[in-house]
TrEMBL record:
UniProt xrefs under Pfam families: GvpL_GvpF
Main location group: other
Compartments (UniProt record): Gas vesicle
Protein name: Gas vesicle protein GvpL/GvpF
Record GO biological process: gas vesicle organization
A single GO cellular-component term on record: gas vesicle
Keyword annotations from UniProtKB, A to Z: Gas vesicle
Domain of life where this protein originates: Bacteria
Length: 204
C-alpha cells in the first residue's frame, strides 16, 4: 500500500528529506502535470495511530513550507503507484484548478465566542452587538484580506464565528494584525486565530 500526503504541480520540488509514516522515505508519483507525494506503507502500518497522524502532518507542513500543496486527508492510501496515477488522471482537471486556487496562500483558522454571556431580555440591553452583528464585525475585516472563506455553524453555545480563511502569504502579517486588533476592540470576545495551516478547508 502507498500513503498519499499531498498533491503538487509536477514541476514542484518537494522536500524528500522528510520522513513519512513509519519513518518511510518519501517518493513521488507524477501524471499529467500533477505530482503526488507518497510513501510505502510499512508492515503493520495499516491502522491509524497518533504517531502516524503526526508523521502525516509533518510531511504536509513541510510541503506547505516549500511549495503549493493540496493536502490529502490522513489515511488516504492506494494499492500502488499505478492506482495513484489512475486517481490523478481521473481528477486531473479539478486538481489543477484547485492548485491554481490555493497557489501562494495558506489557511488561517478563527474561532470567536462570548463566554458567560448575560441573559438579558432585550437585545439593545446587551453590552455588545447581537450575534449576527458581532459575527459581521469580526468577519468583515478578516474576510477582506482573504481570497476565499469557509464559515461553519456554531458548535457550542456562545460561539459566534467559526471560519477558515484562505490568505495570500503576502497578506499574512496584515491578517494576524487585524485579528489582534479585533481582540482589543472586543475584549469580551474570546477570539483565537491559528495558523498558517495547509489549505485543508479549501480542498474537496
Amino acid at each position: 500500500m502507498i500513503w498519499v500526503y499531498g498533491i503538487c504541480a509536477r514541476d514542484a520540488r518537494p522536500p524528500l528529506d522528510v520522513r513519512g509514516r513509519g519513518e518511510a522515505p518519501l517518493e513521488t508519483v507524477a501524471h499529467g502535470g500533477l505530482l503526488a507525494v507518497v510513501s510505502q506503507a510499512a508492515d503493520g502500518d495499516e491502522r491509524p495511530s497518533t504517531g502516524a497522524l503526526h508523521a502525516h502532518a509533518r510531511v504536509v507542513d513541510a510541503l506547505m513550507d516549500e511549495t503549493t500543496v493540496l493536502p490529502v486527508r490522513f489515511g488516504t492510501g492506494f494499492a500502488g503507484a499505478l492506482a495513484v496515477r489512475s486517481a490523478l488522471a481521473v481528477r486531473r482537471t479539478p486538481l489543477l484548478h484547485a492548485l491554481h486556487h490555493v497557489d501562494g496562500c495558506v489557511e488561517m483558522a478563527v474561532r470567536a465566542s462570548v463566554p458567560d454571556r448575560p441573559r438579558l431580555a432585550a437585545v439593545d440591553q446587551l453590552p455588545f452587538p447581537p450575534d449576527r452583528r458581532l459575527k459581521a464585525a469580526l468577519h468583515e475585516p478578516l474576510g477582506g484580506l482573504a481570497v476565499a472563506v469557509r464559515v461553519w455553524p456554531a458548535l457550542v453555545p456562545g460561539e459566534v464565528l467559526r471560519a477558515a480563511y484562505l490568505v495570500p502569504r503576502a497578506e499574512l502579517p496584515a491578517f494576524q494584525e487585524a485579528a489582534a486588533e479585533l481582540e482589543l476592540e472586543f475584549p469580551r470576545v474570546l477570539l483565537t486565530c491559528t495558523g498558517p495551516w495547509p489549505p485543508y478547508s479549501f480542498v474537496e
